[in-house]
Amino acid sequence: MTVILIIVAVVIVLGLIVGLGFIAPRNRRGSLEPPSKRRTLVDDRVVPPEEVERAALVEAEVAADLATHVPVDDVVVEEVAERPRFRDRLGKARAALSGAMGSIAGRSKIDAETWDELEEALILADVGVGSTQELLDHLRARVKVDGLSNGEELLGALKAEMANRLSGFDRELKLSSDSGPTVWLFVGVNGVGKTTTIGKIGVRQVREGRTVLMAAGDTFRAAAAEQLGMWAERAGAEFVRGNEGGDPSAVIFDGVEAASARTIDLVLADTAGRLHNNVNLMEELSKVRRVADKGDGTVTEVLLVIDATTGQNGLVQAKQFTEAVELTGVVLTKLDGSAKGGIVIAIHDQLGIPVKLVGLGEGAEDLVSFDAHEFVEALFA
């Protein structure tokens, strides 16, 4: 009897071991199986793979832009870095001029060759043909009146003339004195850093104590709304968006109305830089400008964002946008890159529009107010 009980016990134990052996591999296979490549579940919703990839790219881009910012309780808490100096960030632009200017400075007299060399240097620095000729005409007059005799004196007069041409402009970003929200519109072609510029300005305005709403009016560019939404979240700003491919004017109008209802101080409105339909871009921007002023909001700034590295192409863009909307100022991005700097002179001379902000780096603190004297000194120092 005892033997029978032992045999039965052994059989039961072996059965348990064999059963667990079959179950364990299946569990392991289940736990190690990679997630499906065909779909992703987010909050019980099936998200197409292209949307997942796009969101990941946008997240990475904004995370890089905001590397210096740490959001806490919906407000960006950061150690405010020291304002970057033009002298430290315009090394490439200065290097583009240094060879020619050094040669001119060493000349003991001002002759025809000196003028030719100076003209070539200014054109290569993206000052443009028209502005270069105007500069040279004024310098020739100064040489006669003041009796300038050598290259060093000529360059001193050039610096003074450039600084004078950049002075006399109101570069302050205006806020409305009315009870409703202030509206700042941002225009520019795709790829110049328009959305990132809005995010950086939003960070700065929130830091200065203002309440901000960002309106994603660029409904035709994939991921534009997602990118601006992430900036809003990290800046502690409100956010309004519309359907992809929808009416940009309607988004801006809804943003202004939402800001008014929530007593928000400032609306930062993104606009399209390229359209995917038959509507002319400039006509669309003119419509956006008209609609933005309706209701409780007041448009005080229409800022054109230009990539400084595009040189004279940036001036062409500025002329086109000026015809569509009444610009109040220019934001010049990537001035610390391969930009030659002369485009600043051309914008002021040819369009009479002030450069109000310039980008001297990647962080929000690197978007700074333009200082004419510091800029000119940085080009020559």
Question: How does this model look, in words?
Answer:
By secondary structure, this protein is of the alpha/beta class. Among the domains are: 80 residues, Up-down Bundle (Four Helix Bundle (Hemerythrin (Met), subunit A)); 146 residues, P-loop containing nucleotide triphosphate hydrolases (Rossmann fold). Helices cover 52% and strands 14% of the residues. It contains 14 helices and 12 strands. The strands form 3 sheets. An 8-stranded mixed β-sheet has the order 7-6-8-5-9-10-11-12, sandwiched between helices. A two-stranded antiparallel ribbon has the order 1-2. The protein has a two-stranded antiparallel ribbon with strand order 3-4. A hairpin with a 2-residue loop joins strand 3 and strand 4. Helix 10 packs parallel to helix 11. About 11% of the residues have low confidence.
